Amino acid sequence: MARKASKVTIYDIASAAGVSRGTVSRAFNGNTDINSETRQRIFDTAKRLHYVPNMNARGLAKGTTECIGVIMPDVLNPYISELVGVIEKSARAVGFSTHIALTHNDAELQQKLLLRMASGQVDGIIITPCESDESVRQINMINAKIPIVSLKFREKLECDTVMGADSDGIRMIMEHLHSAGAKKVAFLTISGQDWTHLERHEAYLSTAKKLGLDYTKTESIDYSEGWEEMEKDVIRIVASLFKRKDNAPDAILAYDDILALVVINALRHSGIKVPDDVLVAGFDNIRLASVANMTLTSASVESSDIARFAIDILTQRLNSSSSSKVRHVRISPRLYVRDSTSRETLKGKGK
Amino acid sequence: MARKASKVTIYDIASAAGVSRGTVSRAFNGNTDINSETRQRIFDTAKRLHYVPNMNARGLAKGTTECIGVIMPDVLNPYISELVGVIEKSARAVGFSTHIALTHNDAELQQKLLLRMASGQVDGIIITPCESDESVRQINMINAKIPIVSLKFREKLECDTVMGADSDGIRMIMEHLHSAGAKKVAFLTISGQDWTHLERHEAYLSTAKKLGLDYTKTESIDYSEGWEEMEKDVIRIVASLFKRKDNAPDAILAYDDILALVVINALRHSGIKVPDDVLVAGFDNIRLASVANMTLTSASVESSDIARFAIDILTQRLNSSSSSKVRHVRISPRLYVRDSTSRETLKGKGK
DNA sequence: GCATCTCGTCCGCTCGGGTTC
DNA sequence: GGAACCCGAGCGGACGAGATG
User: Fold this and answer.
1) Strand order in the sheet with A185-190
2) Quick check: A227 CB within 7 A of strand C?
3) Which of A36, A42, A47, A52 is closest to A17 using CA atoms?
4) Which of A17, B29, B249, B349 lies 20 to 30 angstroms, CA to CA, from A280?
């Protein structure tokens, strides 16, 4: 356990192998200007001496890291988890390692992470930003130094963005609910998630209007106090929604799948049956949605698509010094119809 | 969008502020030997010039990073997601930033990540290691350079470890199932997860024996082909388990909650009712277990406990050069009884 | 003598011009 | 005239001894 500071440097292995440090360096990097025998000898002694090239030094000298930063609010939401996983794989596929960091939706922390990463830690950044003006400013500033791809869009944002067309997804779900017989769809959302909320909410309202649904009702759930409180909040809201039978919704559209699951639970708690008494739909199509009896109707953009685009754009930026125009990709989501909105059968449709 | 390589260095801000680079350095680090006016002036010009200290250079010169590495197989499993989140928070609470990386259970990749991190990227590492002998060797080697805390235990592992007493958890669940009337408990597990599987499986067998349950049956699910195939595999196995009514289990203990949810789904698919026909229990108590109708009986160690211990140990290692003895912490899990094993009532007990 | 600041070095590695056979 | 290799100069900052008032 004696923690040897074992500073085995390029010097050590150079002298041990009887060459200069430059040669050792070349052995580990380019394939040029080096005899394969020498290279092998260097590798051998390197292994023998447990040599590990120092990334800091390399990064300092080279000015590049072959590494991209991934900044996410958290990783609790399965949707983000999946996203992070595929981003990592995609990045690795193109020779980049990945440096993941979490903001917990704290703009100050996000600031620190951006600065830290932009200061030689990574070559580019993929971020799901905090939703505040402050956040936009931060990103714009850092984007002037290294390329950033944001997974949320905002007018004033000056970096590339990649995201799903949430409004289409909401529209699809609303239409589905409508064709399933729903006349009164309520929208349950999370307070604080302004940008995303706004888009989804607007889509909810406009689609309701387009479908001739007079009833609209939006309820915000407070998630700032943690999961427990949030669950209680949902129960409270559900209870109030169904207090007057004649004015109760016959369908609930939740901000995302997690919330939808919580809502279903709250409904059961109140003795309201899904989908018999009320239809419930979520958004994001998290993997568990298909197994978490009751399976959940949902919509989402393939996270692999998001990841692919994000990586593509980032690598393009990194490879070409040409400061081409900013790109904003919108990917169409897909609708997944499952038990929570299927009255006729209990065999899950969709996947 | 013109990506200014904007190399604003300590030199620039030094000359702009009319001081030497050493002073600038001190302004950003120690509070010693510097006039508060000067410091303020330095901060101001630093901000004006968008100066960001280069982490690579700092790390190189200082030999320390105030950053810990977190290496996980992936982040899809909610249990791990939660863990990562709390580890990050705990680390931040003690002044460390966090560098998260994913192995996807690939020992080779793990090797690269370990090397990279150990080469000046981080001061210490918390890892949920791949389960192979190769992995053990890697960790031991790196542990000689910087402290590692493993979240899985293995005899030959020479680093600190922190983990839950899985066997106790399994025992608790088994006893619960037994007292709920189960006589024939089957164990469904994931193939490939050797270490963890072995411990849980052994506990399953020994507890069954202790409880006088003659029937034992272990089925391995193949998860190497991805989620879809895994689901099919579970359906197939469930079908075969219940082919002969007289020899079918009356309870299923799943390797973890995710698998349990999949199993419940498969059971429903086969027309078998939970908990009426068969009890189902998982392990890990993922948050969704409490809302994913049917709610799930489960057991787990608080991930915050794990995180706290891991961080504690790591910081101790980092703060004291004394190479004290290796520690192996075992934290008792807690049992969560919910609907999937409650016949008498549908009101969820436990949380 | 003391608070404040400067300067030279080094951290470990990359890079490109120069050298050797 | 190459192929193979050496060397010196940084990359951006930290640090400690010495300078300045």
Assistant:
1) A216-221, A185-190, A251-254, A279-281
2) no
3) A42
4) B349
Scored b (16 or more CB within 10 A) or e, B80-113 reads bbbbbbbbbbbbbeeebbbbbbbbebebebbbeb
Q: Which class in CATH covers the domain with range A166-300+335-341?
A: alpha beta
d(C-alpha B46, C-alpha A183), whole Å: 59
| pLDDT tens column, A231-282 | 999 999 999 999 988 889 999 999 988 888 888 889 888 888 888 888 888 8
Segment B8-23 mean pLDDT: 84
- The spacing between the Cα labelled CA in B279 and the C1' in D15, in angstroms, equals 66
Alpha carbons B160 and B151: distance in angstroms, whole number: 9
d(CA A190, CA A230) in angstroms, rounded, equals 9
Rounded Cα distance, A207 and A187, in Å: 12
**Banded pLDDT at A179 (limits 50, 70, 90):** confident
Report the range of poorest mean pLDDT among A298-312, B224-238, B276-290.
A298-312
Rounded distance between C-alpha atoms, residue A147 and residue A317, angstroms: 7
* Domains B67-164+303-320 and B166-300+335-341 alike in fold: yes
Say yes or no for a CB contact (<8 Å) between B291 and A262: yes
DSSP letter string, B156-184: T--SEEEEE-HHHHHHHHHHHHHHTT-S-
The CATH code belonging to domain A67-164+303-320 is 3.40.50.2300
Beta bridge partners of A5: none
Question: Which residues are bridge partners to A71 per DSSP?
Answer: A101, A127
Amino acid A143 reads N
Dist CA B121 CA B115 (whole Å) = 9
Asked whether the beta carbons of residue A52 and residue B119 sit closer than 8 angstroms, the reply is: yes
Q: Strands A160-164 and A328-331: what pairing?
A: parallel
A101 and B102: CB-CB below 8 Å? no
Length of chain B: 351
For B315-338, how does the pLDDT look when each residue is reduced to its tens digit (9 = 90+)? 666 555 555 676 666 766 666 666
Task: Break chain A into its structural domains and give their ranges.
Answer: 10-53, 67-164+303-320, 166-300+335-341
- Other residues' Cβ atoms within 10 Å of the Cβ of residue A243: 9
User: Sheet containing B185-190: which strands, arranged edge to edge?
Assistant: B216-221, B185-190, B251-254, B279-281
| Interatomic CA distance for residues B317 and A282, integer angstroms | 46
Class of domain B10-53: mainly alpha
- CA gap A289, A258 in Å, rounded: 9
Q: Considering only CA atoms, which residue is closest to the C1' of nucleotide C14?
A: A61
DSSP A341: G
CA→C1' distance for B20 and C2 (Å): 20
Pull the structure tokens for residue A210: 């387009």
Using the structure block, give the residue that is written with the tokens 């729903």: A182
Mean pLDDT of B299-321: 61
Instruction: Choose the closest CB to A119 out of B53, B295, B323.
Output: B53
The candidate with the shortest Cα–Cα distance to A15, out of A33, A54, A41, is A41
Cis-peptide into B275, omega within 30 deg? yes
pLDDT in tens, A112-126: 999 889 888 888 888
Average pLDDT in the A162-184 region? 87
pLDDT band at A13 (very low <50, low <70, confident <90, very high): confident
Structure tokens at A50: 């447990």
DSSP string, A304-325: HHHHHHHHHHHHHHHH--S-PP
